[in-house]
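Dig into what follows:

_____
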Amino acid sequence: MLNYNHLHYFHIAAVQGTVAAAAEHLGVTQPTVSEQVRALEKTLGVALFERKATGLKLTDAGRLAFEHTSVMFRAGERLVESLGHGEKDMPRTLRVGMSGAVARSTTTDFLMPLLALPDCVPSIELGDAAHLVRGLRASELDLVLCETDPLETGRRGLEVAAIDETILVAVAPPSIEPTPDWQNLSLLQYRASSSYRWEVEAFLDAKALRPRVAAEADDALFLLEAAARGGHVAFVPRSIARDAVSAGRLRIIARLEPAHSNVYALFQDGEASDLARRAVEVLIQHARMGEDHS
């Protein structure tokens, strides 16, 4: 088992560059520093320093160890700083998990209200929805934003709220005039793993539209930019298309009614989720304001 003191002496020696400087900084003798560093090298089974007349030089293993100890001791300093606040002034961390599908289909301002929550420091993690929900159940996350409404069997112990209704619009450059069957258009389509893919295909089938598929991708921002630059048509969330349409780079040629493409918030039942519940309320309010200005 690693000894914390050994790590600390090694880290200071690496920072100071000599055993003498490290000993002076720590207020101990030079042999004590040397003994502590050698004990760590013995535990790890590697040499951490090259001992030279001019001082200490980190080996490759030493540089790797120093990267780790730098993270460790920075974290320790931040812990002391955080706990130095009075209890009433101590900010709470809101651990938010966001699925990749939501991250790729929402604008940056979707999360901005979380940054304005008082006495709160949001910590945002991206990942697969199923993995994030497991983290939520294990109390590793406080809030999960995903594109899937869990089945009843998966809701046990969780609260679920619909945050936003995703409305897809088909956008194309203003210079392109689609034929009635869209056969003159090249479509940037979502991949089969995206819930948007099936909504787009259902719309195209219902309207008997037959554009040629030019490419597949899940990043709505990429689809938007590729449509504007390459003369394609793409279905993207209305909130993402808004600025490009206002600027005249693209125009809306079709609109899909919302179906299953929503953003859901999941959080645990109980008093421990008060901060998450407050965050959800703020996100819902912000989404409604966005609809009013659409």
User: Anything to note?
Assistant: The two ends are 59 Å apart (CA to CA). The first strand starts at residue 49 and ends at 52.
